[in-house]
Amino acid sequence: MPSLATKLGTLDLATPFLAASGTFGYGSEYAPIVDLKNLGAVVTKSLSVQPREGNPTPRIWETPAGMLNAIGLENCGLDVFLAKKVPDLAKLPTKVLVNVVGHSVQEYAEICKRLDGVEAVDGFEINISCPNVKHGTRFASDAADCARLFGAVRPTTKKLLMAKLSPNVTDIGEIARAAVEHGADALSLINTLLGMAIDVKTRKPRIANVTGGLSGPAVRPVAVRCVYQAAQACPKTPVCGIGGIRCLDDALEFFLAGACCVQVGTINYADPDLLNRLPGQLDAWLKANGHENISEIVGKVAI
Ligand SMILES: Cc1cc2nc3c(=O)[nH]c(=O)nc-3n(C[C@H](O)[C@H](O)[C@H](O)COP(=O)(O)O)c2cc1C
């Protein structure tokens, strides 16, 4: 019998399928329709020290095979998160990764420090890659800034630290190495690609923020390429693939490129049942192909 269990650094995941930040609330919102125990983890909406209102509307626009969004990291802030969200997260029958965002190195460090003792939190996804806020990708586009950030955050927690990288860079391998060499236990990628759409009748941008982040199936080849390059740059570091997954074959592409698990994002809006189907489909695929678990195919792209 194949096993769907997989490891992300020190974390044991029930399956390699995680729900992506910003597309799955805090997990409990989806409990009526998704069997959460079949997920490897829920990744929460980005959390900042202070609450954020996000960007003005319109904040989303559907594109061919994807969507643009510029939500602007709207969230309740750390105090409300601790008081109101953590009790519900503690009840989820899956692992919880808190996605962390900040204006400064100190803000990232403060969140990790204050959540380090919280049992419901299994680890952190450090979001250095949001294209929809001012300076959102500074830590993901400059290797020295990235190194400084992980150097400051690492001492604040023993929990898993996963660096969420941006595709909007020249050399993703360089940024991946900087994160890992300064304390990241794992890498996740990609966040959205910076995009723009214009209403030709009104001549106005479709998104009030003017630009937004492109996600969905349109970005998958970029994401698979980024995962491949990051896995090559950091061969000992677990990689979580994200970007445009809408069926099992899409996830398999990421495993072959070097990911040990994947996050499912935009498709949750169109096909929230996908996360229920993927584990059974992977189990059948592993059996049919004579594999015990996915570790046998991770990074096995035939080049
Ligand atoms: C509406 C929306 C909100 C998002 N919010 C966040 C966020 O708060 N933090 C974050 O790190 N990524 C956020 N993302 C990015 C996703 O987690 C994911 O990296 C990206 O959408 C690519 O995966 P996908 O094509 O499967 O959606 C958001 C994406 C969407 C579509």
List the helices and strands and how they pair.
Elements: E1 6-8, E2 11-13, E3 17-19, E4 41-43, E5 60-63, E6 66-69, H1 78-89, E7 95-100, H2 105-115, E8 123-127, H3 138-141, H4 143-153, E9 160-164, H5 172-181, E10 186-189, E11 193-195, E12 198-199, E13 204-205, E14 212-215, H6 220-233, E15 239-242, H7 248-257, E16 261-264, H8 267-270, H9 274-288
Parallel strand pairs: 3-4, 3-16, 4-7, 7-8, 8-9, 9-10, 10-15, 15-16
Antiparallel strand pairs: 1-2, 5-6, 6-14, 11-14, 12-13
Helix pairs in contact: 2-4, 4-5, 5-6, 6-7
The structure holds flavin mononucleotide.
Task: Name its key features.
single chain, 30% helix, globular, eight-stranded parallel barrel, binds flavin mononucleotide, 303 residues, alpha/beta, four-stranded antiparallel β-sheet
Would you mind describing this structure in some detail?
The structure is a single chain. The protein has 303 residues and is an alpha/beta fold. The protein has a single domain, classed as Aldolase class I (TIM Barrel). 30% of the residues lie in helices and 19% in strands. The protein is built from nine helices and 16 strands. The chain has helices spanning 78-89, 105-115, 138-141, 143-153, 172-181, 220-233, 248-257, 267-270, 274-288, and strands at 6-8, 11-13, 17-19, 41-43, 60-63, 66-69, 95-100, 123-127, 160-164, 186-189, 193-195, 198-199, 204-205, 212-215, 239-242, 261-264. It has an eight-stranded parallel barrel, surrounded by five helices. It starts with 5 loop residues before the first strand and ends in a 15-residue tail after the last helix. Bound molecules: flavin mononucleotide. Flavin mononucleotide binds at residues 20-23, 45-46, 67, 69, 71, 73, 99, 127, 130, 164, 191-192, 215-216, 219, 242-245, 264-266.
